[in-house]
Amino acid sequence: MFPLQRYEKADSVQDAIRLLSDNPEAKVISGGTDVLIRLRDGKKAYNQLVDIHDLDELKICDITADGTIRIGAGISFSEVIASDIIEKHLPHLHKAAETVGGPQIRNIATIGGNICNGVTSADSASPLLASNARLIIQGPAGKREVALSEFYLGPGKVALDQNEILIAFTISKQDYSGYSGDYFKYAMREAMDIATIGCAAACLIDGNQLVDLRLAFGVAAPTPIRCKQAEEAACGEIINEALLTKIGDALAEDVNPRTSWRASREFRLHIIRELAERVIKNAIENAGGTLT
Amino acid sequence: MNQNITLTVNGREKTLNIDVRSSLLEVLRDQLGLTSIKQGCGVGECGACTVIIDDDIIDSCIYLAVWADGKSVRTLEGESKNAVLSTVQKGYVDEGAVQCGFCTPGLIMTTTSFVEKNRGKEISHEEIRKAHAGNTCRCTGYQTILTVAGKCLEPGKEPDE
């Protein structure tokens, strides 16, 4: 039995916001793969829950008339993987979803929960950052939008009020059209593991020119990050092996990994550079480019 | 903190009065006596509590029982029909893919869901491994289990019903 003090099932997003507003101690549960484990662990912060599991409003995954991709916060990782839209337009997100936990976890854990829990190791964070994802958040005063890059405030801290619900992620057409992508998760095991480093890249190429590079990492800093220095070093340059080295050099300015029981800072720095080169190379090749 | 839920368990509809604090594992074991389901780690790592809900496998130890309201749940107990083992169960017996047996009910549900979803498709050894990555077995070394999954997908292996 989970040590719950109070449990309320919301029948809509509006209802969830009302229940959360009525009880400032309440937290949201969706897939439960983090919350139920913390609760079983005896974490009192999670013993009053508002349940948004399986709400239809959070299950959308489509492209709107203006070409914007919408991914509902309540979509499970298995649903992310099964989505033709995501596989075609956001291959780095598709690949990242494949690396989450194991099959049982992917069937229940949601992409919204992965972002809202604020951890730097979230597999979906770096691909969403690389595609300039925006968040649609609903609260008592209505809906607001925020860029994912502004959503992370610190380890485990996100810009979401206690009585707000993340509805969906949006990616505008200009942020995916023509871009290829790749993701690589470095972990001790090939399944059922937390990333030591996760790396996502989205590339736009024109012939042998790298028109745009978006590079993002998980676990390379206290929150998932974009690599502005590395991106600036890459944009507009001719694609060759020397460019990969140049990007790798510039990366040092962007990242700030820590030493933990999983890996040392030095080891992570090595992996960051190696992954950046591999993932960018793959993304370029997926776009039909070649390294000379 | 009780509530009624109605769900289908191994093909039979049940209405149960449950405590909303219960995991699905607790309700299936303690209220329905379906003790094939094991609580191993209790945190969604080992897969010993795996059941199939509406065609998808989940860890029933970290699944609130209330979420199963209106859904269809399958456990190992429902897999053999009229004392005849399912194709996957028979495969586990034939390959000797069982030793202590603690993980077996969960693994059989994982293999069953995988085989049902992939029948007729070209499946690589890597895909079979990946599909079984959420179940831990400390005895068999996995090879026999992966062999069962591969053999159950071979042409000529008929679905159970």
Structure overview:
The complex is a heterodimer of chains A (292) and B (161). Chain A is of the alpha+beta class and 292 residues long. Chain A folds into two domains: 118 residues, 2-Layer Sandwich (Uridine Diphospho-n-acetylenolpyruvylglucosamine Reductase, domain 3); 107 residues, Enolase-like, domain 1, CATH 3.30.390. In chain A, strand 13 and strand 14 form a beta hairpin. The mean pLDDT of chain A is 96. With 161 residues, chain B is of the alpha+beta class. Chain B has a five-stranded mixed sheet, with helices on both faces. Chain B is globular, with a radius of gyration of 16 Å. At the A-B interface, helix 2 and helix 6 of A face strand 4 of B.
Short key terms for the protein model shown above:
heterodimer, A: 292 residues, alpha+beta, Uridine Diphospho-n-acetylenolpyruvylglucosamine Reductase, domain 3, Enolase-like, domain 1, 2 domains, 5-stranded antiparallel sheet, globular, B: 161 residues, Ubiquitin-like (UB roll), DNA polymerase, domain 1, 5-stranded mixed sheet, 5 helices, 17% strand
